[in-house]
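From the shared-data thread, chain only:
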Amino acid sequence: MAALFKPPYLALPCLLSWLVELDNPFAKAHKAKDIIDALPMQTGMKVLDIGCGPGRVILPLAQKISDKGGHATGLDIQPEMLDKTRTKAKDLQINNIDFIHGTIDQVPIDQNYNAVLMICVLGEIPKILHESVMQKIVAHLPTEGVISITETIFDPHYQRHQTVVQLMKTIGFAETKFIGNWLAYTAHFNKKMN
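Structure, as tokens:
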């Protein structure tokens, strides 16, 4: 499969995955627990974590939604990251999780999700593709579905809040929740109701 993300895109090497497994003490809105707690929980919810990496957020999220019949899907461009997360899920006996290898623009998505997480991943997608990638994502959200975008200034591909709001406005989504500050934030977006 040809990789969409060519230089200057640089995925975090799997050997450095421990860096993204740690919660940054200076970026509260970037902490796994805060990202998860901000989500609107519901019975049977399905969540897609784009760029799930070594599982810092998707694993505790899958655990939290398992007792309500929820299911989590992790997507990542690096098979080594998915292998790490798959192994951790097995060790933790998390069974309501599956994985997709590839880039969001190229992999087929054959189900709908109640929530889509993008944690420090939007800036890794070439800017020229932002709108088309987001259109693909929103095609798999119900009307009340949420896109949760988390960014931190400590990430080299940091996306300013106003940039993200403008992108989402372009595709017909409005911000419904914001936690954090300029150092790190999580913003939720829902389809605009006319």
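The CA atoms of residues 173 and 191 lie 4 Å apart.
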